[in-house]
Write a structure and sequence with these properties.
There is one protein chain. This protein has 162 residues and is mainly alpha-helical. The protein has one domain. It is built from 6 helices and no strands. The chain is elongated. Bound molecules: protoporphyrin IX containing FE.
Length: 162
Amino acid sequence: MSIWYFVSVFLHIVLAAFWIGGMLFLPLVILPEIKQHPDRIALLYKTGMKFRFYGWIALVGLLSTGLLNMYLRGMPFTWAFFSQSDYGVLVSWKLLIFIGILLVSGTHDLLFGKKGLEELQVSDNKNFNLLARWSGRVNLLLALVMAFLGVVLSRGGNFGGF
Ligand code: HEM
């Protein structure tokens, strides 16, 4: 295997770490610290926007390096491969779950743009809070499933039983 395969997998893992780490950092580190802060919403908005920017870059990078991993490992891009081989079927699942991540992230970003947070400041809408929390949790869970499938893929794509 060429050095570029290792570089691609390396970048893929770093991007995955950034994406998952960022999703944990907000609820575990930032939110509890700024709970009583008078500028809570502004801080949330600023940190959220920064993560949103890098988060989308990470997602684009994950898709690109993911496909590159496959290519550099010499896997074929054929329908038969994606639907019949262990490796191909797992990549198909990753692509499907990736679409789910894009949908949840897109909805989250649409709802919690500047307008959404301003509304939250005025009305302290409980449904909004709930939706923000749950979309974050679902996305974290999906990302962890992606990481697990990735670990299996890197080792051949066959569970081989428990
Ligand atoms: C949130 C998104 C994603 C996360 C968190 C993620 C995470 C990971 C992780 C942790 C690995 C394991 C690397 C190793 O053990 O060596 C991996 C491998 C892999 N991922 Fe992803 N991944 C994501 C998205 C994608 C996407 C969109 C694709 C699209 C094709 C993809 C394709 C692959 C492939 C093909 C491998 C195996 C590389 C090999 O054969 O060595 N991943 N992924």
